[in-house]
Specification:
By secondary structure, this protein is α+β, with helices and mostly antiparallel strands. 61% of the residues lie in helices and 8% in strands. α13 packs parallel to α15 (401-420).
């Protein structure tokens, strides 16, 4: 079985996109450490060698209180600044590039860890502050030297963290960094869903009429737990096809799967039970993620391309960079076995088919938008033609007849878009000659090692 269970990956992806889990955990640990360090100070009181005690905090209760109060107040200010800068970055990414890129920023571990450091220092300083005592009739004064010294060290670490955060933020808001992050995330998704050792297979769809199963909630299909689908189909002694692929929008009450009984139509009870189990095997949400959605990364790159070519932004250079990443992703997909995944039981009997997009469908998604928007500028038009050439060459022996026909189809559409564009005649002539050369390359006989 090429696929792996992705329930854990879905959970990790959901947590990565939230700003609160890591800082919250850091606060809890900081409070616990703030309770433990004063206790350790009491245990080690007077037992530390002079070389160690000489570098510890040496002030009295008033100085310790003043230091910890200063640390607490400054950490609140720094945390507010950090959060404000993060929000500004999110707004910039949303308005300038694409709202779909916000998930990339909120998943940034550096931002999570920086906020966690600042809030942990604040919580630790407040907790230690409670343990400081001055001389009174109820007891002697107490200054937890180790604890206060650690608070000072955490403050220095926070200052360094702030400097590094500003440098990191300046790098993250660059469009090149955002495109790189989207590209890398898409590569990870491809390796999960279409690993390089995956083999192409035709889905064994029965010819007899099928019963439709309906979804019981609405949202984007985020992931499908193949183990639960296989178990449900095996238990019901049925063959199931999940017709919707991750990333598809599902509406409550609409069919999303088909089922065939092994020995005839399923009874009403078994059908209802199977529908309940299949609904439990799919995860829906109102925001697409890259867990199983191989088209999500492509759409993010296309969003950046389209936004850059809009009259309000007019940034063809960014569009060219986005098309370069898009070309690399499509070339990687062309070398992989794509399409549906067949699940078999322990006896090797096919029990379910999970739907995933094919290379042709993903190429259609990309080229429909590229042809619509890219041929208004000579640089993006040139890059769009180069993308088709790169996919043609890199697919090489992996290219199937179906892929070749799809490339020829979009090459013909590209030629029409060039003719209909407002580009200079000399530019049109150059682009058209390149399109013709790519067509000649595609019409060459398929290599013997190509997939069928």
């Amino acid at each position: 079985m090429a696929m792996k269970s992705l329930r854990g990956e879905s959970l990790r992806d959901s947590l990565r996109a939230q700003l609160w889990p890591v800082p919250l955990l850091a606060i809890v640990l900081a409070v616990a450490l703030g309770q433990f360090m004063p206790f350790l100070d009491q245990v080690l009181d007077g037992a530390l060698p002079p070389t160690v005690s000489g570098v510890l905090f040496g002030g009295g209760p008033g100085a310790a209180r003043s230091l910890l109060e200063t640390i607490s107040g400054s950490m609140v200010t720094v945390t507010s600044l950090t959060f404000s800068l993060t929000v500004v970055t999110l707004q910039l990414a949303s308005s300038q590039f694409s709202p779909r890129l916000l998930r990339t920023f909120t998943s940034d571990r550096f931002v999570h860890n920086t906020l966690a450091l600042f809030l942990a220092t604040f919580a630790y300083a407040l907790t230690v502050l409670r343990s400081i005592r001055v001389d009174s009739g109820d007891g002697d004064s107490f200054v937890p030297e180790l604890a206060v010294t650690l608070a000072f060290v955490l403050t220095l670490a926070s200052v360094v963290g702030l400097v590094l955060f500003l440098a990191h933020l300046a790098r993250q808001i660059r469009v090149e960094t955002m495109l790189r992050d989207v590209h890398r995330e898409n590569d990870r998704t491809l390796e999960r869903i279409f690993p390089t050792d995956r083999r192409h297979e035709d889905a064994p769809i029965p010819a007899s009429p099928a019963e439709s199963l309906h979804i019981t909630s609405s949202g984007f299909l985020l992931s499908v737990d193949w183990r639960r689908v296989l178990a449900a189909a095996t238990t019901a002694d049925a063959f199931v096809v999940i017709d919707s692929h991750p990333g598809a929008s599902l509406i409550h009450g609409m069919p999303f799967a088909r089922v065939w009984g092994s020995s005839g139509p399923l009874s009403a009870g078994r059908s209802a039970k199977l529908q309940e189990h299949l609904n439990g095997a799919v995860q829906l949400g109102f925001e697409r993620t890259a867990t199983q959605d191989v088209a999500f990364g492509l759409q993010q790159l296309l969003d950046v391309t389209n936004k850059a070519l809009s009259p309000g932004v007019n940034d063809p250079t960014t569009a060219v960079h986005a098309l370069s990443h898009l070309s690399a992703v499509l070339a990687s997909i062309a070398r992989r076995a794509t399409g549906p995944e067949t699940l078999s039981d322990d006896d090797g009997r096919p029990r379910a088919v999970l739907t995933y997009p094919t290379f042709v469908e993903l190429l259609d998604l990309a080229m429909d938008q590229v042809i619509t928007y890219a041929f208004t500028d000579p640089r993006t038009a040139d890059r769009a033609v180069a993308m088709l050439r790169e996919i043609t060459i890199t697919s090489g022996p992996h290219r199937s007849a179906e892929q070749r026909e799809a490339l020829l189809h979009h090459l013909s559409r590209t030629g029409g878009a060039i003719d209909d564009s407002s580009l200079d005649d000399s530019i049109k002539e150059q682009l058209s000659s390149r399109v013709t050369a790519i067509g000649d390359l595609l019409r060459e006989p398929l290599p013997v090692a190509s997939r069928s």
